[in-house]
# Entry
Amino acid sequence: MGEWGLAVDHSTVHRWALKLLPLLEKAFRRHKRPVGKSWRMDETYIKVNGDWKYLYRAVDKEGNTVDFLLRAHRDQAAARRYFEKAIALNGVPEKVTIGKSGANLVSRVRNSFH
# Structure
């Protein structure tokens, strides 16, 4: 904005982002290819701009991205919401293969008792 001679406060940009990003996500999802019914889900730890982040991701059998979630901290509740959102947007998969990370094993054991 400075290149155009406009002075914009960071809070204004933040408000624009909060308003526009959901609209952009909706528009991009309309053009997304359909995904298969067999999903592979995993969690990994990646470096983004010098900070380590948790990346939860789901891909179908052909390698098409179903959805992903990037978090600063490991969060089981957020991962569950992410999975439920992926199902709501893409339909219930016939099969889900989960990685063998410690977090996934713990959640499988906890969920088997409920």
Remarks:
- Confidence is low (pLDDT under 50) at residues 106-114.
